[in-house]
Every structure is written in C-alpha cells, then in structure tokens.
Design goal:
By secondary structure, the protein is mostly beta strands. The protein has a single domain, classed as Pectate Lyase C-like. The chain is globular, with a radius of gyration of 27 Å. It starts with a helix and ends with a strand. The relative contact order is 0.12.
Length: 283
C-alpha cells in the first residue's frame, strides 16, 4: 500500500514538472512572438488603393522589396542578412570572437502615399525586407555589404548599388538600374510603352529579359565582354572618334557601340558594362 502511494506521488510530481516545463516554453514562445511583432513596422497610406512610391536608402546592408495585395507598407528590419550571408567568426589576438551587433535604428515617413525609409544609425549593417502594394514605384539605394532585390511591383524602379548585385524579378513598368561591382538581372512581365531604360555595371554581367513583343532601340557597349540576344535585331555598329589637342597633348578616344532595332524600334534601352557580358532575352 505504501509503495502504491509513493508511486502516485511520484507520478503527480512528474506531471507537475512537465506542466511547468510546458508553461515555461509557452511563455518563452509568446515573448519571442511579441518581440518579432514589435520589430515589424506597419505604415498606413494616406490614399489606400492608389499608386505610391517607396524610397529607401542604406549605407551598409541589403534591401528586399516585394509587392503584395495590400494597403500598407510593411517593414521588417533585422541586423543580420541571414538569407544569403553567413558571417565568419573573426579571431582576435586575445582569442575573442566577433559575433555581430544588434543595434540599429530606423525612420520611416509617409506623406501622400510616398514612404521614405532610412536608418538613424547609418554605419550599422542591416537587412530591410519591405512589402509594398503592387502598384508602387520603388527607389532603392545601398552602398556596401549587401544587395538589392525588387519583385512583383508595377511602377517605375530606380536601383543603385556600389558593392553588390541588383535583381529585379517579375516587374512591370520601367527601370533604371546601376551597380559598380556586382551582377544585374531583370525580368519584365510588362514594359511601359515609349519609356527609355538603362542598365549599367562596371564589373559584372547584365542579364535582362523582356516580353517578346517589346519595341526598343537597344544601345549596347561592353569593353571586356560579349553581347548576346535571342531577339531579331537590325544591328548597326558605330565607332565614335573624338580628338583633342590641349596643352600640347594630343588625345584620341574611340567609343565602340552596337545598336539594334527590335520589333521595328522604340524607346532607347541602354546597356553598358566594362568587365562582363550583356545578355538581352525575350520570353
């Protein structure tokens, strides 16, 4: 009989321990959820349903913008770019390791459907994931340690990077994109008629896909790379020669550029890089 009572008491204690552990787990999960929600910034628009513009600037870090069917701009900042980059642990002379910093600040301002986002601590590195209504235009700029990715928006896009890639996916409208050290890719679902565009990189390939019916006058120049396309182009190669004689110095500059009409010609589409290939595709 005593052994039976002891077994029951032990079972009750085990149940209490399990319930306590479950309670601790649920509390920790709730706190984590609350923290994640607090890091999400939701910006209501002055004119829901109407076209708008997002302008976002970073000195260090990556920018990801995705269009969605909604009437708010949703910002999710984080200090680590875990999606594509894994930081290597740095050994110091005293045996310490650098594991990163979580301190960053952000300011977002909305006025007449124009949203401006920028960090308040510009030297910190962060990842900004932003959702915007699909009928938004986007101006995105970053300099170091990151990339720019914009997808599923219908509007005007301006993307500028210095040390990193630019990727524009499933976009409709027009684009002006420039990176110095990185690859540039773009895929258009539709293009705005009679609107010129520009895609440039100093060191990196350029790969742009347009609808097969796109009309354009493509102007292409690659100093140390090849140019490829599956469009039917009426090609014309020009050799612009510039000479000058200043201060007793005679200078000659040759500028080789290939241009081609697609579907009878249209707005100017400019493609230029120094080290890398240029690929213009149709879908």
């Amino acid at each position: 009989m005593k052994m039976l009572h002891s077994t029951r008491r032990l079972s009750i204690k085990l149940i209490h321990i399990v319930l306590l552990m479950l309670l601790v787990y649920l509390l920790a999960f709730s706190l984590a959820q609350a923290q994640n929600q607090s890091e999400e910034i939701r910006i209501p628009l002055s004119k829901p349903g109407q076209a708008g513009e997002l302008k976002v600037q970073l000195l260090n870090g990556s920018i990801i913008v995705r269009g969605y069917e909604g009437n708010e701009v949703i910002i999710r900042p984080s200090s680590d770019d875990d999606e594509d980059h894994e930081e290597e642990e740095e050994e110091t002379e005293k045996g310490l390791r650098k594991i990163g910093s979580s301190s960053f600040g952000l300011e977002a301002v909305e006025e007449n459907n124009r949203v401006h986002v920028e960090p308040t601590f510009p030297n910190g590195t962060m990842l900004l994931e932003i959702q915007v209504p699909t009928n938004f235009s986007v101006k995105a700029q970053t300099v170091n340690n990151g990339r720019i990715r914009i997808e599923n928006v219908r509007g005007e896009i301006e993307a500028t990077n210095v040390n990193g890639d630019i990727s524009l996916e499933k976009i409709s409208g027009s684009a002006v994109a420039n990176t110095v050290n990185g690859e540039l890719t773009a895929t258009f679902e539709e293009v705005t008629p009679d609107t010129p565009m520009s895609f440039t990189s100093l060191n990196g390939d350029i790969d742009v896909t347009f609808p097969a019916s796109t009309k354009m006058l493509a102007k292409m120049k690659s100093a140390n790379g090849e140019i490829y396309t599956d469009f039917d182009m009426e090609l014309n190669q020009t050799n612009n020669r510039e000479t000058s004689n200043k201060g007793g110095v005679y200078r000659v500059r040759l500028d080789n550029q290939v241009s081609g009409k697609v579907n009878g010609g249209g707005p100017e589409m400019y493609f230029e890089n120094h080290n890398g290939d240029i690929v213009i595709r149709k879908r």
